[in-house]
Amino acid sequence: MRVLWAQGPSTVAEVAGALNRQQSHQLAYTTVMTILSRLHERGLLKRSRIGRGFRYWPVADEASSVDALAGRAVDAVLTRYGAAALRQFGERLSTLDPELRAELLRLAQCEDS
Fold first, then answer.
1. Is the dihedral of CA 23, 28, 34, 36 positive or negative?
2. pLDDT tens-digit profile of 7-31?
3. What b/e string do you get for 35-46 counting C-beta neighbours within 10 Å, with b at 16 or more?
4. Domain 2-58 carries which CATH code?
5. Which SS3 state, helix, strand or coil, does residue 95 take?
6. What is the pTM of this model?
């Protein structure tokens, strides 16, 4: 996803090339193709046919995508662990970066209005 956010619409070969330049372990073309196809099936990527392949691009920008994923993760934790999860979140408030804690409290107050 980060490659596509950085480069814009890309083919499997372009994504594989970018990923393989960033790491020592080389990914196979078919591995990257499978991952992009699955991200498309999950609605995170769009694609258009180019010859025998596809050009992929993200449905949403990085900030929106991260926000949506974080929301789903929080929902899953709260659904599974309920009050215990809330207690743990509360205990961690005192150890948060002061700016992050102030932002969290500001967001909580907006929800009450």
1. positive
2. 999 999 999 999 999 998 999 999 9
3. bbeebeeeebbe
4. 1.10.10.10
5. coil
6. 0.70
